[in-house]
Amino acid sequence: MPDTEVKGIDDMLAYVGDFSRYQLILICLFSVINVLSAFHYFGQTFTSLVPEYLCNTTEYNQRNVIALECSIKLWENDTVYVEERCTTGWTYNNSNTHGYTSLTQELNWVCSDDWKPVLGQSVFFLGSVIGGIVLGVLADNVGRLHVLVIANMLAFCGNAATTLSSNATTFALSRFLAGCATDTNFVMMYIIVMEYLRPSMITFGLNICIGVFYSISCMSVPWVAVWVGNWKTLLIIVSGAHLIVLLFYLIVPESAQWLISKGRTEEAIVCFQRIARINGRTIKPKAIESLRQYSLENINCKHQQENFFGLLKTPNLRRKTIILIYKSMVLTLCYDAISKNINSTGMSPFIVFTISSATILPACLFILAVQDKVGRKALASGSLVVVVQLAEIFLDLQGYFPGLLMISGAVACLFLPETLNQVLPVTLQDGEAFGEHEKTWQFALCGGGNSESTTILHRNANDH
């Protein structure tokens, strides 16, 4: 590619450097986001942890009473007893929790009050749905970088507010606020890093970050909780750590693709000039002028008016959108069911959670090894089937419902088009045509991918 021949954003990225010092900085910052996301998401698991407990019987004659979780048995003689509801408080066995005190234990949210921590968990995920929609729309209007910071500030406020909770109402409201940040506080950085990274390095760079930093962070959450000793200190640390994202304004660029789509070409040029400077490159005036010309030729009102509801107007795109939404719901529900089921194994929930988190790294390494060989479609559907089998062998997930959900998600993924070695769609029209004639059982491993098209994320790898 000639030095000054810039026909689009991807050419400009190759011109200023698409895997050099600046990209390594972005990957490091993405690693920070992985750490923050892990503590934000799973901190709530240990905030609401329920240790073993029994009704407090210190006020009774110990020879005539048997303590249960929510009641006591008072023996009147050797054969007759009266069972009474527990009104004297509870004693907690912290041997399995290594001395850690959760909110549930501190506020005695057990027995008749056991719905309160469950309510907090539920509204957390309600917040993630509403926050994902609202912040997603906001990202299309104010930019990815601003929403990345906003989401992490919501996480800061929500977790900090939780430490002040003393009743179900304030707890639910604070968890809803924290939930509004969930996923968006991670996804926006994912999008930015992916946009500024060489296509051939995307799978490697992002999966290594997630596999190493997210996995280690998840494994660390329970032991940080043990180290600090109680849920309030844990959440203070988690919330305070999110303030570091304010510094991202000094380093992280706004999405050039978004800036140009909004007609803010000069700001996109400034982003590329910063990347070039840190990567030790110089942008010639002719290259900048070429990018300006590209922007003038490709920005139009039609693209500006496209929105989420456009995904539902045409049949092929509507089907793919609904499948992706359903698949995301299944993954979230089942993943959360497994991560929250740490109390049912009979082992220390801290050890169980650590072991389950340790599987993230080999999982990411497996994806790294096979994703570009078998394709996304086969990997997505096949992994859900494998999870069902492992769940049946190793973990009782309260019946067959989660297993049936995962099977349905696997089947749904078969109706998605393969994206390996394909030019990904940019407009709604491209999205409607993408994979329109692909068969359900067509996989990249079996020749489903187009080997002649090596462009990923609408970039031509041959240019690099």
Describe the structure.
With 464 residues, the protein is mainly alpha-helical. It folds into three domains: 1-51 and 94-302, Growth Hormone, Chain: A (Up-down Bundle), CATH 1.20.1250; 52-93, no CATH class; 306-464, no CATH class. It has 19 helices and five strands. It has helices at 9-16, 21-47, 103-106, 115-142, 144-162, 168-181, 184-195, 199-228, 231-241, 256-261, 265-278, 285-298, 301-304, 315-340, 349-357, 360-374, 376-394, 401-413, 428-433, and strands spanning 52-55, 65-67, 71-75, 81-85, 90-93. The strands form two sheets. Strands 2-3-4 form a three-stranded antiparallel sheet, with no helix packed on it. Strands 1-5 form a two-stranded antiparallel ribbon. Strand 2 and strand 3 form a beta hairpin. Helix 8 (199-228) runs antiparallel to helix 16 (360-374). It is elongated, with a radius of gyration of 26 Å. The model is unreliable at 450-464 (pLDDT under 50). The chain crosses the membrane at residues 22-42, 118-138, 145-164, 176-197, 204-228, 234-252, 321-338, 350-370, 377-394. Keywords: Membrane, Transmembrane, Transmembrane helix. It is found in: Membrane. Pfam families: MFS_1 (PF07690). It is a multi-pass membrane protein.
